[in-house]
Write a structure and sequence with these properties.
Order of helices and strands: EEEEEEEE
Number of helices: 0
Helix content: under 10%
Distance between the termini: 59 Å
Largest sheet: 5 strands, antiparallel
Shape: elongated
């Protein structure tokens, strides 16, 4: 058996610096309603150019008769406060809404909130997720 002599090395400590992610999404609970009366509409648009006016540059994402499902959806994520970002339209009447896409098998993927600043439509404020 051959013994080898090893040099003594002082104990070392390695540090890892925690770097938080810049993206923190708010997780909202939002009631899906087209307007105060939850009326029927025919078109759903995204405000693609962010000018708060329905025009030819806005993307139509749904066509057909619909209204909000009037259910509070949990887990609606947004990296900013909920703001009006789309439109519902009958063809003759148009109003701005908050639009989000969330897969639910029973109620479809597109949902709208008439007033994302109202406690009537926002069941809870966001938590970090």
């Amino acid at each position: 058996m051959r013994l080898e002599k090893k040099d003594w090395i002082s104990p070392r400590t390695n540090y890892q610096e925690f770097t938080p992610q810049e993206f923190i999404a708010g997780c909202y609970h939002v009631r899906c309603k087209t307007d105060a009366e939850n009326g029927y509409y025919n078109y759903l648009y995204l405000d693609s150019n962010h000018n708060q006016r329905l025009d030819t540059e806005d993307e139509r994402v749904y066509i057909g008769t619909f209204k909000g499902c009037n259910i509070v959806h949990t887990g609606v994520q947004s990296d900013t406060d909920l703001v009006l970002n789309g439109f519902v339209s009958t063809g003759a009447y148009t109003t701005m809404v908050y639009v989000w896409k969330q897969h639910t098998t029973q109620y479809g993927d597109w949902h709208v909130c008439y007033d994302p600043t109202s406690a009537e439509y926002i069941a809870e404020r966001p938590n970090a997720s």
